[in-house]
């Protein structure tokens, strides 16, 4: 069963790249038009200049459904009760991303391998919360629709629906007015999840990190808890935060010893690091993989064995939900409780930008499982998933590894055994190496 799953993942992974590179080649060859605007740099804060001409290239029947970028062929703006609706018709299921920018305040819909070809621009004329709009390509594969806001706004609802029989899709985004303060808070939250301008890096937004040498993969090891947040405490007094740091260092050393990898840590001492800060560290480093190391407590003391968790909106089971809930409390423990109030933007992101990352994460989980299996005691169903905040990172694939559970006396003894720790670290490093060899050269 496990081998079957791994093969399926590999197949999906290969297929994904065939499609992705096929599109990139088509676009590079100019076979597929990417829109009316040609912008050289993807680092400008808002690369879409005001449109100089009206584009009216609706997709022909022949274009619709053929390979190539998906086409947003119609759009309209309407007002209702203070809200402004944006409706976009798409010829097939789109990959896209939405986010806000400030100075001036804007709402951006960014397409991934899609183009805007409105048959008629008139229904898109500015109204309500939208003072003006423009669209065009911002890179070889990305296009943006930029709505200038007349007032600060937030996403009230979003829906992507399949239109019966036609095979088309309709994206409906509802914008509501919010206070300037709320807009600023939403931007801060969006920034912590995405970077200030969605998937496009803005100059000066990020701490510059050295370019990765060709073929070198960056792995971030994240020892759970630390400082004021001790994590779980074993029946014999073991502190999770100390165990995770110790094991993380062994894992890092084993990966370093392979050569061809750059290892970083979210913490290298007994300090508190918030969950969003851990995410940020991995993202700013442009990490290729995050491995978060834990050894938590469960209510059921009989449960034991290593568990590999990936990110999912809904937990696979009640145990996974329990672990995620307790992990996500880390910030609360440290008095940083940030209510998850502003969730519409983050929800959209979770939906739409995590897909590729999720595929990589699941693949790594499978590779890790087959390496650990002969050497490490595992829980029943060792691949589980839940909504772990530390893994909510659109750009960095990752897993949260529970080495075992400190609520189980035998697990605690095993986890403290140096030889066991070494064995585990070696197998994790092997899995990392296999994962990247299968995945190909660095991004
Ligand atoms: Zn933990």
Descriptors for this entry?
elongated; Aminopeptidase; 10 helices; 6-stranded mixed β-sheet; Immunoglobulin-like; alpha/beta; 2 domains; 443 residues; single chain
Describe this structure in words.
Mean pLDDT is 79; it is low at 1-47, 49-58, 195-208 and 337-345. This protein has 443 residues and is α/β, with parallel strands linked by helices. The strands form three sheets. It has a six-stranded mixed sheet, with helices on both faces. The chain has a five-stranded mixed sheet with strand order 5-1-2-9-8. The protein has two domains: 70-194, Immunoglobulin-like (Sandwich); 217-439, Aminopeptidase, CATH 3.40.630.40. α1 packs antiparallel against α8 (355-372), α3 (240-258) packs across α10 (418-439) and α8 (355-372) packs across α10 (418-439). The relative contact order is 0.13. 32% of the residues lie in helices and 24% in strands.
């Amino acid at each position: 069963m496990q081998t079957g799953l791994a093969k399926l993942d590999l197949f999906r992974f290969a297929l994904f790249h065939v499609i992705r590179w096929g599109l990139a080649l088509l676009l590079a060859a100019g076979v597929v038009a990417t829109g009316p605007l040609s912008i050289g740099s993807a680092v400008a804060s808002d690369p879409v200049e005001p449109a100089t001409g009206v584009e009216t290239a609706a997709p022909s029947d022949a274009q619709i459904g053929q390979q190539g970028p998906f086409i947003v062929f119609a759009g309209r703006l309407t007002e209702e009760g203070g809200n402004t609706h944006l409706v976009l018709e798409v010829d097939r299921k789109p990959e896209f991303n939405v986010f806000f920018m400030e100075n001036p305040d804007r709402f951006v819909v960014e397409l991934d391998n899609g183009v805007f070809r409105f048959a008629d621009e008139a229904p898109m004329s500015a109204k309500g919360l939208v003072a003006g709009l423009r669209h065009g390509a911002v890179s070889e594969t990305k296009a943006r629709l930029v709505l200038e806001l007349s007032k600060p706004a937030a996403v009230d609802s979003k829906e992507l629906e399949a239109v019966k029989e036609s095979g088309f899709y309709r994206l409906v985004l509802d914008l509501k007015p919010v206070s300037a303060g709320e807009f600023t808070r939403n931007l801060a939250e969006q920034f912590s999840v995405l970077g200030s301008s969605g998937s496009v890096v803005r100059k000066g937004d990020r701490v510059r990190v050295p370019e990765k040498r060709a073929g070198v993969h960056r792995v971030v090891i994240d020892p759970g808890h630390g400082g004021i947040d001790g994590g779980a405490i074993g029946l014999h007094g073991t502190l999770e935060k100390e165990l995770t740091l110790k094991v993380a260092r062994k894992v890092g050393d084993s990966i370093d010893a392979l050569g061809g990898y750059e290892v970083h840590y979210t913490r290298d001492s007994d300090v508190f690091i918030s969950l969003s800060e851990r995410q940020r560290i991995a993202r700013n480093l442009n990490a290729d993989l995050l491995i978060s190391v834990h050894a938590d407590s469960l209510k059921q003391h009989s449960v034991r064995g290593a568990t590999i968790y990936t990110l999912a909106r809904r937990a696979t089971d009640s145990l996974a939900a329990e672990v995620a809930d307790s992990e996500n409390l880390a910030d609360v423990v440290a008095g940083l409780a940030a209510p998850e109030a502003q969730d519409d933007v983050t929800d959209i992101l979770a939906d739409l930008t995590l897909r590729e990352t999720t595929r990589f994460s699941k693949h790594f989980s499978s590779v890790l499982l087959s390496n650990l299996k002969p050497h490490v005691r595992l829980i029943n169903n060792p691949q589980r998933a839940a909504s772990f905040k530390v893994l909510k990172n659109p750009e960095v694939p990752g897993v949260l590894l529970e080495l075992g559970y400190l609520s189980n006396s035998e697990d605690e003894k095993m986890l403290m055994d140096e030889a066991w720790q070494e064995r585990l670290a070696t197998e994790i490093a092997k899995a990392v190496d296999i994962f990247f060899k299968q995945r190909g050269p660095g991004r």
